[in-house]
Amino acid sequence: MEIFLCLEDRGGMLFHGRRLSRDRAVTADLLAAAGPAGLWVAPFSRGLFAPGDPVRAAEDFLLRAGERDACFVEDRPLLPHLARIRAVTVYRWNRRYPFDRALDLDLSQWRLASVEEFPGYSHPILTKERYIP
Amino acid sequence: MKKLSASILSLFLAAALLFTGCGVPAARPGGTAVQGQSALSAPEPLPEYSSGAEEDPVSSAAPAAPPASQAPAASEPEESAPETTLENLPAYSGEPYAVLNGNEPSLSPADAENGAFETYSPLDALGRCGAAYACVGQELMPTEDRESIGSVTPSGWVNREYPFVDGGYLYNRCHLIGFQLTGENANEQNLITGTRYLNVEGMLPFENMVADYVKETGNHVLYRVTPVFRGDELVARGVWMEGLSVEDGGEGVCFSVYAYNVQPGVEIDYATGENWEEGAAGSAAGSEAGETGADYILNTGSKKIHLPDCPSVDSIKEENKEEYHGAPGDLLEEGYSFCGNCLAA
After folding, report:
1. Contact check, Cβ <8 Å, A18/B216
2. Which end of chain B, N or C, is less surrounded by CB atoms within 10 Å?
């Protein structure tokens, strides 16, 4: 599966069960990346998307997702699913936020396949990085 | 521009009051140790700060935000640690902030029923800021670039350069409510003497979180920052930051944290704002403002309190010149007042 996630400058993902930030430009990019097949998310993330968006929400979405499915992850560890991950795409906020949960993968050991920058709605510049194990 | 349709917000508010996701407590925890003022119109008055919070560390309290290398990798925050409050606040131990009161702010959604607002406490007799409180919405956010705030001299402003401090200078004129949230420029009631570390590592991450949420959702966030002083000290030991999103009852934003006004590598005399590199002689001996070793210079004739490096000190008659060590607040009852130049509020 293809994993998509957002990180603040020090690798943080959540603070007391709440997302650190959001940007509608990221949401649009996620949907574009997922394509017609749609995006798997946790129920926690469903509210980021409009009701008609091609998004499937399930608590066990990382188990349900197929080999080529796109999954957006905000609130859970990835290490247990490492063997099934084909790529990780990171959207970097390029800002600092408080956090008490960080990404549990060390991406420095992965191959950085592509880097792209684009303007956000509430963030001046977002950086999109794609990593291959 | 700073207007809001109160009726629309009230509808959201009614729903928010039913929402319990953030577990908003009904009142502040008892005996909170903050320097506050009663000028805030929306919240209840804040009690007087009375004890040395950092002298009673709770070593088992978990840090709020471990660095990425040490962060619990996608595991739940510790639940067994005793709840940290202002009364048992641990001493600074490497983390820029500590979660207070189980991360539950003492903010009432009812404060937002009339829409966006911003309130700032008048300076106290020592020229110190009190709590700043706002219901932040897009209508309060700045539409123009930030202006200079250098005209404001917050209490305890004895600034110095250190080569290892980001930006060079120890102190920033630290907005209680960040410029990006309410667009306040040189508002003396919103600027404290804060270290670069407090500003960037402690406060900015929370300001960013609030700002992004408001911009992306169009919702509002109740946001209060209360400087915490000890006794008559002129520099705050830290700030208590609280945030609560209104329309979704805290689902989007909910926090209560204490950010430490410290700077790694620098020791600070919070009574005066004087500072020196860690491990140095314990005072600013030989430095630009501390050559006399005194915290202040008094003019016993005019009853004025000066900083040692104030140009007016040179013109004080020797028989009227007196060195003073300690908190200047004690002098006010003796008829002294602050020099309008070096200690302007």
Report:
1. no
2. N
Beta bridge partners of B271: none
Number of domains in chain B: 2
B216 phi, psi to nearest 5 deg: -80, -30
Residues B224 and B318 in one domain: no
Residues A86, A1 contacting (CB under 8 angstroms): yes
User: Is the same domain home to B239 and B325?
Assistant: no
CATH number of the domain that residue B52 is part of: 3.40.570.10
The CATH number of whichever domain residue A67 belongs to comes to 3.40.430.10
A123 interfacial to chain B (CB closer than 8 Å): yes
Q: What is the pTM (predicted TM-score) of this model?
A: 0.73
HSE-CB of A80 using CA atoms within 13 angstroms: 8
Interface contact A122, partner B, CB < 8 A: yes
Q: What is the predicted ipTM?
A: 0.94
pLDDT tens digits along B298-344: 888 888 888 887 778 888 888 788 887 766 766 776 777 777 777 76
Domain count of the fold of chain A: 1
Q: Is the minimum CB–CB distance between B216 and chain A shorter than 8 Å?
A: yes
Give residue B84's identity as a one-letter amino acid code: T
Q: Containing domain of residue B319, as a range?
A: 292-338
* Residues A104, B74: C-beta atoms closer than 8 Å: yes
User: Distance between CA atoms of B150 and B147, rounded to whole angstroms?
Assistant: 9
Alpha carbons B209 and B219: distance in angstroms, whole number: 13
